[in-house]
Amino acid sequence: MRSHEEDVAEVIIEAAARDVWAFRIEIVSVGLLAALWVVTDRARGSMAAWSAIAIVIAVVVAVGPIRRRTARVFRHARVRRQWGRAVRAARIACLQEHIPSARRMRDIPAGERFQVRMPAGSSVPDLERNAEVIAAALGVRELRVRRNPANASRAEVVIARRDPLAGSEPVSWPDTAIPQLSLWRPIPVGIGEEGQVVAVSLPERNLLLGGEPGAGKSVALSLLVAGAALDPDCRLWLLDGKLVELATWNRCADGCAGVSVADAIEVLRGLQVEMEQRYAQLLDAGRRKVAEGDGLPLHVVVCDELAHYLTTSDRKERTEFADVLRDLVSRGRAAGIIVLAATQKPSSDVIPTSIRDLFGFRWAMRCSTPQASDTILGSGWASSGYSAAEIDPACRGVGYLLHEGGIPVRLRSYHLHDHALRLIAARAEALRGLRTEPWEG
User: Fold this and answer.
1) 146 to each of 153, 404, 407, how far by Cα in Å?
2) Given this model, what pLDDT does residue 243 score?
3) Are residues 332 and 278 part of one domain?
């Protein structure tokens, strides 16, 4: 039988070997320099050996790509050691002996991202449940764990040390100066935490946008409306519950409604008739949906301040508006009808789940409560760490964008100032033959 002293010695040796292995990159680097010194010393003498070492160090320091690559390798090695200590500090029972090692690490604006493979006897939820403990041990802002949908033993881990979306200057919409757009192409709407451009493809999709006043909802909505207006083949319909938010685009629109719920219903009823006619055309042609280049233009319905129409005091009008809107959102996609709806009152009594769940894209700006955030994104996302209620009120334009079947992406929307909006609107009017004088470029 093994003695207690032998067990203790084995534990000490294993821990020491693990600590030594954690510094393998540094040890190998020192070993290579030592080997270079020995070989050069035997061939040329000690002076040449020291000169060779000095030259290697000088090249690493002086050559930018080599310096950055070397620094990144050593920094990632340090992060891996920190990760190992943090996971062990979390005292996850099934991970005490073997921890998920960090692989394929990359730097991102928020911190680092890497892949892990869970050791036998453990699972990704073990990490997810202890993410806060591990983040505290690392001393970082946040730790995100995302399971690989194709392999239960693998996960992606993001160590978020900073918020790359906070405190930065607004970034202008990249399509501001483009003369003409096609709605069949993705519309860039913002920049994600990893510096990537986030875009939405609207055909066969609808979008629900919500956030409290001052969160940046109107600017985000204007990006989508601008994209639709700059497509001369697109038909634009505006429901403006506040009268002024969509006024810039009135001349580009085929139909408008203001605060009158009856007028809004009339616009939606007209689109309902168009939808039925299109389905009859598609049936005759033996096709399932509207496609690019088939001569059937896309129709975009923009409803700003959805709450105004869904909470009107007239119960009959309220019910009729909700029924027609639900019909367009649920059946209009294949007919080329796209609904963009926005509200500054994201609550379940304003946006029923029967309507919300029909929207392919859901965009939550800053909300006052986690429940309000879930009203836009869907139940359970706030408790999973995707809560628009946690967005700093000073970070206008920051929100979560969810695509059906995906994971919410945290992004900061592009900015369109009033002057740019007026120029885009004038250009859109010219494209539609509504303006003959040149627009100011």
Assistant:
1) 11, 17, 9
2) 82
3) yes
Cα–Cα distance for residue pair 306/371, rounded to 1 Å: 18
Are 104 and 196 within one domain?
no
User: Which tokens go with 440?
Assistant: 């100011």
Residue from 357, 398, 359 nearest 379 by CA: 357
What mean pLDDT comes out for the span 362-374? 92
Q: Please indicate, yes or no, whether residues 216 and 254 belong to a single structural domain of this protein.
A: yes
Strand partners, 102: 116
Judgement on whether residues 147 and 198 belong to the same structural domain of the protein: no
pLDDT (mean) for 102-131:
89
pTM beyond cutoff 0.85: no
SS3 337: strand
Number of domains in the chain: 2
* Model confidence pLDDT, tens digit, residues 26-38: 888 888 888 988 9
Q: Is the model's pLDDT at 401 over the cut of 50?
A: yes
For the record, the structure tokens of 324 come out as 């027609």
For residue 430, give Cα distances in angstroms to 143, 187, 325. Answer: 50, 21, 31
Could you tell me if 437 and 426 are in contact, meaning their C-beta atoms sit under 8 angstroms apart? no
Is the distance from CB of 380 to CB of 398 less than 8 angstroms? Answer: no
